[in-house]
Amino acid sequence: MELRQKDIKIIQEREKSICYNHGQGTGSIQCDQESVSGTVSQRACVYCGARVVLNPITDAYHIVHGPIGCASYTWDIRGSLSSGEEIYRNSFSTDLREKDVIFGGERKLSSAIDEIVENYRPRVIFIYSTCIVGVIGDDVEAVCRQAESKYGIRVIPVKSPGFAGHKSMGYKAACNALMELMGKEKRTKFRAINYLGDFNLSGEIWIIRNYLKAIGVDIVANITGDADCDSLMKAPSASLNIVQCAGSMTYLARRMEEEHDIPFVKVSFFGLEDTASSLRQIAQIIGDEETLRKTEVLILEESSKVEGELQYYRERLMGKNAAVYVGGGFKAISLIRQFRDLGMDTVVVGTQTGKREDYEIIKNITSPGTVILDDTNPYELEHFIREKGADILVGGVKERPLAYKLGVGFCDHNHERKHALSGFEGAVNFAREIHQSVNSPVWEIIKEELGRRSGI
Ligand code: SF4
Questions:
Q1: Does residue 370 have a cis peptide bond before it, meaning omega lies within 30 degrees of 0?
Q2: Residues enclosing ligand 1, CB less than 6 A?
Q3: pLDDT (tens digit, 9 = 90+) per residue, 258-307?
Q4: Does the pLDDT of residue 415 top 90, yes or no?
Q5: pLDDT digits (tens, 9 = 90+) for 109-152
Q6: Span 170-189, average pLDDT
Q7: Which residue owns the Cα nearest ligand 1 atom 5?
Q8: Phi–psi pair at 128, nearest 5 degrees
Q9: Is 424 exposed, middle or buried (0-12, 13-18, 19+ CB in 10 A)?
């Protein structure tokens, strides 16, 4: 794979992070590196990564130890849904000011913990370190230890100063905090799994839970969509971990394998193909003949329910082109397969935190000429969306304005979405959204208007 530079000025340090897939590629894309300064990386900070993972724990309290701006940055920005408590929708901050930066913020943090204990009687509090706490060197761990012994509750530090790296390091900090929370229970539950890396943005966990129930498999803990502290403490009793968001959860899965002897597999419930193969994989690992039989029945029933509607969308989407820019590699891979199932070609694909092995798979399943990008920015995305003639961009909240400005469709596959995209029913929701966006008459009106203004 090599980059053809045409009509675009790429910052030199980024050249190896952009490739055209030439099919029989010999080189590998540069990835899993620090972002290049000045490139307008779309990655969030370490603290934000940690917050993304821990915030969905519905009955936990979250204190952001830092200036108020850090707290507002991630307060309730993700639509992760709860079937129980709603405490997690509140955010608490120590609101550090100039004086605290000079004299230290530990006393303020202790007071914040006291206030929360007095008013809300929490069982678990997470304390997030932000940039300034990393700079002034507050001993957050000591404050947490003191509070734990004073109140007999769990007060867990999350080591996430924003500047210490990027979002991926925040995932790791959150996973370390989760390990702190988990009990020492041994693997005792058979045909019971932990579901890692789904944040229940629009009820996806409930869909997958129903599928698993139908084949006789229980979930001990969702980590962390719609999670509660009790189930997380029991997570070590499961016999298998399934990992959906590999970028955020592979580290936790590895630690649980080493320390709790729980094996893990990577799965994906995006699209018919990946949903069916993930269910089969789970059934084969922890099920018996009966589980396998039930799995095949479920796949057949659920696929036949959605086939008619999917065919309707396929006929309307055949031959269109897609661009994908998402957080992790697992999602990008599933999306490429989903677009292929709809008769569409993925002509641009990138991730914020994909790993070498993800890009190898992406290279193998995309068409020759597809542009592959790691940790890209709006400037590069705009160029390649235009160059490759994408009809739709799939991304997150930061990519939406870019798509609309370019006059192409957009699908939010991240925190702002309002309908579930997992499982068989999620595949139909996805196809419907892609159809409604790509084939919306608004793009023709925009093209005409742009043409009129430029005198074409
Ligand atoms: S980069 Fe630092 S200051 Fe900004 S939100 Fe993250 S932790 Fe807060």
A1: no
A2: 45, 47-48, 66, 70, 73, 130-131, 162
A3: 999 999 999 999 999 999 999 999 999 998 999 999 999 999 999 999 99
A4: no
A5: 999 999 999 999 999 999 999 999 999 999 999 999 999 999 99
A6: 90
A7: 70
A8: -95, 130
A9: buried
Ordered structural domains, the chain, with CATH = 12-30+318-417 (3.40.50.1980), 46-181 (3.40.50.1980), 192-296 (3.40.50.1980)
Contact 181, 124 (CB under 8 A): yes
Q: Which atom of ligand 1 is nearest to the CA of 160?
A: 7
**Ligand 1 atom closest to Cα of 74?**
5
Give me ligand 1 centre to Cα 88, in Å. Answer: 20
Q: What is the residue-averaged pLDDT of the chain?
A: 93
Q: For residue 26, what pLDDT is reported?
A: 40
Ligand 1 centroid to residue 322 C-alpha, Å: 33
Residue nearest to atom 8 of ligand 1 (CA): 70
| Residue to mutate (ligand 1; options 163, 168, 169; most atoms within 8 A of CB) | 163
Residue 326 to residue 270: CA distance in whole angstroms: 13
What is the arithmetic mean of pLDDT over 162-183?
A: 93
pLDDT tens column, 348-362: 999 999 999 999 999
Q: How far is the CA of 368 from the centre of ligand 1 (A)?
A: 40
Whose structure tokens read 């008459």? Answer: 441
The pLDDT value recorded for residue 30 is 93
With the most atoms of ligand 1 within 8 angstroms of its CB, the residue from 65, 131, 168 to mutate is: 131
Q: Whose CA is nearest to atom 1 of ligand 1?
A: 162
Token pair of 92 as six digits: 């608490």
- Cα gap 204→421, rounded to integer Å: 7
Of 383, 385, 373, 384, which Cα lies nearest the Cα of 30? 373
Concatenated DSSP letters of 222-259:
EESTTB-HHHHHHGGG-SEEEES-HHHHHHHHHHHHHH
